[in-house]
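Final paragraph of the annual report: two paired records, presented back to back.
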Amino acid sequence: MPDSCLSIDALLERLEHRTKFHAGYPYNLQIDYQKILPLLEYMLNNLGDPYVEGNYGLNTKDFEREVIQFFANLYHLPIDDTWGYITSCGTEGNLYGILLGRELYPNGILYGSQDCHYSVAKAAKMFRIPFVEVQSQNHGEIEYSSLRQALINNRNSPAIINVNVGTTVTGAVDDLSKVIQILEELKITDFHIHVDGALGGMLVPFIEGAINIDFSKYPIGSVAVSGHKFIGSPVPCGIVLARKHQVKSSDVEYLGSTDTTITGSRNGLTPVILWDAIQRRQHMFALEVAQCLQNAEYLYNQIVATDQFALLNPFSTTVVFQRPVELIVKRWQLACYGKIAHIVVMQNHTRPVLSQFLQEAEIKNPYCLVV
């Protein structure tokens, strides 16, 4: 095999440069996990259920359980009915939540808006669940009259409903109380509500007047949140929560545990990453959310002041604007959808960073930039 032209040093240099010009994806790049580097010396694998220790001893399930309990407290899930695990990403959390709905209601129909994450339609294909795509409002929130009509059309079938707390493109938040009101008015009692809170799930608990993700108040079945977004992580990860009494399991003798998760082997490093962040920063989460909201408003106001199109939904840090030239898209790693693009304002997006983007996006000759 010939010598590779790649090198770790060159990779580090590239990553350092690209981190400075990152705006389009909802990742908190302001992270520091130097203290957990020694854990890379060990093969950490959280095999099986996080609440069953199992035979494999090199695990971090105790850390995993504490992370799950933090989110259970955040969303008011009773401790005696709490179950969850650390996933590989938000998509896995959505897959699990929708699969749980299908397990509870094998003849159920999955409903999701036009603006829901692509993993919702993927789940329908993987698990062979009939999928009804519900219309969205112009700003990305679900169209409730469309949902109501879709439920009426299939009122004899159980409903598995995906509710967005922060849509992918516009950051719109579906009103959970309105969805439940529709179910009550139509007297639909067989349903499973899955909340996709990839980014918004860590924003709304700290925003006054925002929609509550509250298991004690609403008949929520499951919630998925991304760990590498607001909290921040050097590797993708997520959290899924469910009501313990609804979780299906089967024994796996050679693991000394039960099979309750989607994957077999599970990353044992990510629970420690999330646990460490929660221990160090949970008292600052509200302040971090407030700063992101303020910086998103700053970006939105700066764009609007130039008489250009911009959109910023309530309870969101996603600022939508007209798609700039391709070199700006590549340089700032913007997520685009047709003629629009967005910046998801995170902790690392300070005013100077946003001002630099605004200045570069407005220049007459962008080809002088180095991607």
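The closing record of the year follows.
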Amino acid sequence: MPDISLKSILDNDFYKITMQNAVVKLFPGEIVKYEFINRGKHYFPEGFADALREIVQKMPQLKLTREEKLFLKKTCPYLDLPYLDFLEGYHYDPSEVKIVQNGNDLKVTVEGLWYRTILWEVPLLSLISELHYEMNHMERDPNETVISKTLEKAESLNELGVTFAEFGTRRRHSYNVQNLVMEALTRKRNSTFIGSSNVHFAMKYQVKPIGTHAHEWFMFHGAEFGFRMANGLALEHWVDVYRGDLGVALSDTYTTDVFFEQFDKKFAKLFDGVRHDSGDPLEFADKTIAHYQKHGVNPLFKYIIFSDALNLEKVEEITAHCQGKIGVSFGIGTNLTNDVGLKPMNIVMKLIGVQTSNKEWIPTVKLSDEKGKHTGDPKMIELAKEFLRIKD
């Protein structure tokens, strides 16, 4: 059996921590369900589910250490002490996870209280990715090559003068590769590298943990309160918890056009910027700039974080397009943590349902800016499009 395991409870994306804090405060009784989606139709060999299940069974051993708690307290003052005390007592519960394999097809679902199950998604994806390469006996580039590639990319980004962060936990090749990447990125002192979405590596390399919220924050609000209320209420609830901190809003859960209908002058002034995660990045930049100008906000005082399948060429193109118009920053994922001479995995885990008080499930949906790439229950997708007046 491969020797693969998580090293820390903070080996997770920061937005899972920030969302968990908000869920504990606002939605402690909500029950949800997540589902693994094998978008790339990757091959899972015999015994894969058993190996993954064995790793998951060991995860309750992970606990927030005293040093990790002090790091969060010092670095993230908007995470208040009651939440940090809660996280100190938190442990993964494997009974919330169901893993089934039929032939070469893998099915993974997570179900339970939202404030508990919210931490499963990213570790499961990273474990599935690492286990996939290990059990298929796929050899990656040597460590020296991984480091040199990373240094070359960092130097190119430095020359462009753009700030960037490492966003690659969920589809990393392995823990060891992400560690090599982080070591390389933090080697140079005068770098434009600003942090990592991975809290464990942010602590290990003493950089800023970066993240706010994910699509599931808005998808939950859509299922719970209705699609027309989802963006506005999700943003209001975020402000209620963070009071102006963590001010980057994700824009594309129900398409960017619908988002900007509710991202009014109040939100445009209050939030520091927005994050782009699907669709044409240049079109998105133009829409964002026009939206700020419409509300009398100088776009140069705001910024966009681009995070959709970035490589150096895309970063160069976006930077040139936005120069002198709006601030930009970049969250680079797979191109950093899984550029090892193998095909990166295309896998996701999505919130698929919210349970009502009478035990019925309301399906969630995501209406991407990529035409034809909406995800979720087909009937609910059509209902959402009708309510939001979206035409493909």
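The chain has a mean pLDDT of 96. This concludes the annual technical report; the extension proposal builds directly on these records.
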